[in-house]
Design brief:
elongated, mainly alpha, about 90 residues, single chain
Length: about 90
Amino acid sequence: MDKQHAHKLLDQLDPNQFAAVSHLLEVMADPVTRALAAAPADDEPVTEQDRRRFRDGRAWFAKRGGKGIPMEDVVASSGVQPEDRR
């Protein structure tokens, strides 16, 4: 299929179809998306320690109503000044 044929097909689409195809092309052309698609699968086994940390993290969030620590609080506790963040 050549570009002229693709252009003719694009001209036949209604606005919603065109928007969907445009989004698909943007995703396909994105280098990060392509790199992720080509990356090997994560085959590292999940350990019992991993499972425990996951459960502990979920429990931590549940105790706080699903909210984490605001970035401002993290920065303030680290001693980093706002003007140092970049």
